[in-house]
Amino acid sequence: MITKNFRLNALANTYSAAIYHDATARNGGDHFTMQVGKTEINVAIVDGVKGIRELVDSYVLGALQQNYPAWEVIAINLLEKCVVNDYLTGHGREIWQSMINDMGDTLAAKGMFQ
User: Fold this and answer.
1) Nearest to 5 by CA among 81, 75, 87, 84
2) What is the dihedral of CA 20, 26, 30, 36, to 10 degrees?
3) Alpha-carbon dihedral of residues 29, 34, 44, 112, nearest 10 degrees?
4) 7-18, pLDDT tens digit by residue?
């Protein structure tokens, strides 16, 4: 857990759950696809919502923490726009897709799956 801010943790958990449920519904199981260079790979979601929360901590909250002094306030404002009634909004889906793209770009930069 990257923060002790109760509100931010609650929002990050809600966002992670919405991502998990959206991804599993769209893909028919605990996985999602990612483009790594020219190769499309399936990525298993390990530990369900908890596994997605680790990705949210790394790719959303961690990035904000490294770049903005008031990162928790920014993160709260951002995550409030990502989920409505336990479902991803378009904004929430865009951020999730950006996370997937970042992961794929990182693997491609390391020369994996080329």
Assistant:
1) 75
2) -100
3) 160
4) 999 999 999 999
